[in-house]
């Protein structure tokens, strides 16, 4: 008969399998999106979307990974008006890719700060981490397809180097704006500027 210890283990491992499955599905989705981008076939299905809800859902999906990293997540969702006209799936993938990036290039203790604000009928999202950071050359190239930053002694970076080119494409297709601020050893901040609805 299964004791409670075994049940806990089973629950723990099945949650890991679920997370890995999600991650694999996301990688496949990213490759498919990349091939669509090559042919300029991204179709946006825009609907009224609450930015804060999407951010919170994405963070929920990363719950296990963040727990595993003993990460601290600081949310400062201060935009009074958080409604945008966006493709909900692509927008969620965009946020997801940036959070995934912060996790991939993190150091011992991961801190992710996500904040929102309103400026001149625009919504700004800042996704900030305390990871390994980037030099100026890397910052110029990170949105290129298949470009992978040199990670020094970070050996666990998985993926295809497609995440940020996808992010840039989705930003461009929505007619938004994205920029990155970073220093080696000081972490990175991605800032997305979107039109309010």
List keywords for this structure.
single chain; 197 residues; alpha+beta; Heat Shock Protein 90; 5-stranded mixed sheet; two-stranded antiparallel sheet; 44% helix
As an assembly, this protein is single chain
Q: Tell how many strands the DSSP assignment holds.
A: 7
User: Could you tell me the mean pLDDT?
Assistant: 83
Please state the second-level CATH architecture: 2-Layer Sandwich
Distance between the termini: 57 Å
Tell me the overall shape.
globular
Low-confidence stretches: 152-161
Determine the fraction of residues in helical runs and give it as a percent range: 40-55%
**Total domains:** 1
Strand content: 15-25%
Record the strand order, biggest sheet: 2-4-5-7-6
Q: Total helix count? A: 6
Helix/strand class: alpha+beta
- The name of the CATH superfamily reads Histidine kinase-like ATPase, C-terminal domain
**Elements, N to C (H/E):** HEHHEEHEEHHEE
The CATH topology, please?
A: Heat Shock Protein 90
Largest sheet: 5 strands, mixed
């Amino acid at each position: 008969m299964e004791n409670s210890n075994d049940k806990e283990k089973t629950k723990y491992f099945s949650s890991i399998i679920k997370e890995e499955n999600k991650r694999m599905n996301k990688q496949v989705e990213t490759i498919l999106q990349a091939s669509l981008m090559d042919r300029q076939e991204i179709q946006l299905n825009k609907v009224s979307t609450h930015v804060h809800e999407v951010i919170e859902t994405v963070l929920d999906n990363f719950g296990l990974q963040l727990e595993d990293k003993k990460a601290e997540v600081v949310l400062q969702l201060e935009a009074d008006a958080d409604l945008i006209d966006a493709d909900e799936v692509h927008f969620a993938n965009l946020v997801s890719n940036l959070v995934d990036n912060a996790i991939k290039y993190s150091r011992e203790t991961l801190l992710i700060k996500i904040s929102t604000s309103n400026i001149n009928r625009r919504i700004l999202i800042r996704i900030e981490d305390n990871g390994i950071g980037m030099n100026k050359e890397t910052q110029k190239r990170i949105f290129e397809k298949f470009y992978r930053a040199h990670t020094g002694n970070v050996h666990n970076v998985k993926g295809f180097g497609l995440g940020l080119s996808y992010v840039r494409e989705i930003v461009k297709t929505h007619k938004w704006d994205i920029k990155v601020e970073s220093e080696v050893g000081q972490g990175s901040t991605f800032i997305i500027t979107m039109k309010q609805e």
